[in-house]
Amino acid sequence: MKISIVVPVYQVVQWIETCVDSLLSQTYTDFEVILVDDCSTDGSESVCDRYGSDSRVTVVHRKKNGGLSAARNTGIDHACGEFITFVDSDDFVAPDTLAAIAAAADADVDIVEYPISIGYGSPGSTVYRNSYGAGNALDCWTESRGYFHCYSANKAFRRSLWDGIRFPEGKCYEDVFTVPQVVARARRICFAQGGMYYYCRRDGSISTTYTIGNLTDFVTAEIALLEMLKTHTTFDNCRADELFITICNWQAMLLHLGGNYLLPRHKVSPLKMLRSNCSAKIKVKTSLYALLGKSYCRLLAKTFK
Question: CA 283, CA 271: separation in Å to the nearest integer?
Fold first, then answer.
């Protein structure tokens, strides 16, 4: 089973070698690395060309800078493997990652997820692991609250899932817009216990720098995710309320920065939430939203510094 690894590259000369070396040192050998240079000017483009001498590496130089989504889409267009996975060029993976993916990907599995170290190397870093049952992929993803971790990075997707689906160009938080669509197409999703994706937070990245623009994209994507899941039978009222209240945090941050109120009407169920297994914090926030409505986010926004 061949695995295509798509690596978007832009202005990452200080990190790209660590990334690509981690891929070329995999214990599993049936793979291709697709380096998509998005018009770098810091020397990253030359590093890509140097790796291009390796038969396992394909280098694509885009003619126009298009951003992360455009680079990933270019990589998908060039992929030949049965499965595709995405690795950002300032991150890296453990040596047994592809082997773990290949071992878990049987004939009925369309998505293999594997552990991810979030914020690796920084204070407060955490390792995320999940578990899925043997049912439909979207059912299992919803049941396990996988929608709180819409990363494309720690997943390998059967390439056919991407027919007609691409990352939204010009948008931030592209994974939240896209991954739910792909999961909805899949037959089964499973979690590989081996491997590790090391997601490294960098100063100045979108994940550490909030603006009206990127928070607007994030809240918009999360609202679309909520509306999609509300039509799904395994997504009960408590899960809907939990996700909605979580989105309220980001809506409040957007208001704090001067952005617009974007949330749709949503009637929460505080009594059901109090009897659920959600955290005490979510239960309290749900009760506050039930009392205050839109004013909840506006009051919350005033607490940010």
Answer: 9
Closest C-alpha to 39, from 70, 15, 14: 70
Helix (H, G, I), strand (E, B) or coil at 86: strand
CB 189 within 8 A of CB 149: no
Listing DSSP states for 175-190 in one string gives HHHHHHHHHHH-SEEE
User: Taking the chain (305 residues) in consecutive chunks of 10 residues, what is each chunk's mean pLDDT?
Assistant: 97 97 98 98 97 98 97 98 98 98 94 96 91 91 94 97 97 96 96 95 66 97 95 87 97 97 94 91 95 95 88
Rounded to whole angstroms, the Cα distance separating 47 from 55 reads 15
Cα pseudo-dihedral 275, 276, 277, 282, rounded to 10: -100
- Lookup: tokens for 255: 């208001």
For 23, counting Cβ atoms within 10 Å of its Cβ (0-12 exposed, 13-18 middle, 19+ buried), the class is buried
Q: Enter the pTM of the model.
A: 0.94
Sign of the CA dihedral with 180 first, then 136, 96, and 196 last: positive
Integer Cα distance of 277 and 273 in angstroms:
8
Return the beta strands (E) in the chain as ranges: 3-9, 31-37, 57-61, 83-86, 92-93, 109-113, 116-118, 126-128, 155-158, 188-191, 197-199
The three-state secondary structure class of 39 is coil
Cα-based torsion angle of the residue sequence 281, 286, 288, 291 in order, rounded to the nearest 10 degrees: -170
11: alpha, beta or left, given left = phi > 0 and alpha = psi -120 to 50?
left
Structure tokens, 68 = 């992360």
Counting other chains too, the contacts that 226-230 makes at CB distance below 8 Å and 24 or more residues apart are 226/266, 227/264, 228/180, 228/184, 229/142, 229/147, 229/180
